[in-house]
Amino acid sequence: MLHLHGDKVYxxxxxxxxxxxxxxxxxxGTGVPIAHVRSQYSGVILGGLDxxxxxxxxxxxxxxxxxxxxxxxxxxxxxTPGCSVPNDSTDRELSQLPEILGA
Length: 103
Prior knowledge:
Elements: E1 2-3, E2 22-24, H1 27-30, H2 34-40, E3 44-49, H3 59-73, E4 77-81, H4 91-101
Parallel strand pairs: 1-2, 2-3, 3-4
């Protein structure tokens, strides 16, 4: 798995010929839609959640981000934040996602 950290990553350098079977990046931070990555990359895409605004997202926001990312990425998709959520996130803030999505 390749984690591309930061808002200015060069995804196009990693689509072809890279050993990673999965790429994790921030679609929200980079502004690069998951659908664009999917059109260029056939491996597993990890991401979809806005890690910067995670604490302010409502349950409806989280459901929408999940649905949009899943639709854009297709079957080879794992829902994750684009990067880490705030380090001081509480247990409650972290556990809300699986509860909201019924995981």
